[in-house]
Amino acid sequence: MIAADTSVWVDFSKGRESIYAQQLESFIGDGNLVLPLPVLFEILSGPGLTKEAAEAISELPRLELLADFWERAAEMRQKILKKGLKARSMDCLIAQNCIDHDVSLIAGDQDYRHFVKFGLRLFT
After folding, report:
1. Which residues, 6 or more positions from 26, have their beta carbon under 8 angstroms from its beta carbon?
2. pLDDT at position 42, please?
3. Total structural domains in the chain?
4. What stretches of 8-72 adopt beta strand conformation (E)?
5. Does residue 52 lie in a domain region?
């Protein structure tokens, strides 16, 4: 199974020819894509999302939140911030959701590299 960051979904939905959007399309096609709940939130809150797209996305399997998710995500973010590195809140939530389920993440955002030492697997 594999997940994709919100920015990858944006590229895909806008028809951008990025390698990440191509990877996403491939995983949608073969049925191996799962949605981290924070990504689902971001996608569904997009102002340009059509009803049909929202329904299709809502049908994808989801990575549910495990017990103590919020505490683990907060601790990971705190450790990264203490090192003076960038750790956006939503990125932390997406990373923790993937770490909890041992799911690789397709992400074009280089900030995700900070989560690798905590167990995030980035798809390359």
Report:
1. none
2. 94
3. 1
4. 35-36, 62-63
5. yes
89 within domain boundaries = yes
Span 96-124, pLDDT tens digits: 999 999 999 999 888 999 999 999 999 97
Distance (Å, whole) CA 76 – CA 48: 32
Domain membership flag for residue 123:
no
CATH number at residue 67: 3.40.50.1010
Considering the chain, what is the average pLDDT of its residues? 93
pTM, rounded to two decimals: 0.93
How far is 28 from 90, CA to CA, in rounded Å? 23
Q: What is the pLDDT of residues 18-48, one digit of tens each?
A: 899 889 989 988 989 999 999 999 999 988 8
Is residue 82 included in any domain, yes or no?
yes
Structural domain range at position 73 = 2-118
82: tokens are 């203490």
